Automatic annotation (TrEMBL):
It comes from Pichia inconspicua. It comes from the Eukaryota. InterPro entries: Ribosome_mat_SBDS_N_sf, SDO1/SBDS_N. This is Ribosome maturation protein SDO1/SBDS N-terminal domain-containing protein. Pfam families: SBDS_N. Residues 10-102 form the Ribosome maturation protein SDO1/SBDS N-terminal domain.
Amino acid sequence: MSNSNKPEQLYVFYKGNDKDFLVFIDREDYLDKYVKGDTTIPLSYIVSNFEVYRTITGRGSSGKLYVASDAEIAEEFGDFKNLDSEIIPRILKEGVVQKMTKRSFDQDDI
C-alpha cells in the first residue's frame, strides 16, 4: 500500500499511428485476465467508464484530456459500429497500463 496521499488512477495508453488514446480502468487484475483471453469478465468490471480519451495535442498521456470524438477514433481505428465491443477491447489488449495521480486527472481537465 502506498504512503502517498495522492490517489492514483490507472489507465491503458494506446499509442496510435497519428493520435494516442486512453481508457481509464479500475481493476488491473481483471484486465490481465481479460488480455490473456478470459472473456467471462465483463468490461464493466475493468473500465472506469465507457469513454475513450485523448490529450489536446493528440500525442502522449499528459496534459488536458477530453473525450475523443467518433471521427477521431475512426481516423485511427477505421470505421466502427460499437465503441464498447470494438474499440475499447482493442485499446485494452494492445495498450500499456500506466498510472497518474489525481492531480493529473482532475475532472475539470476531462
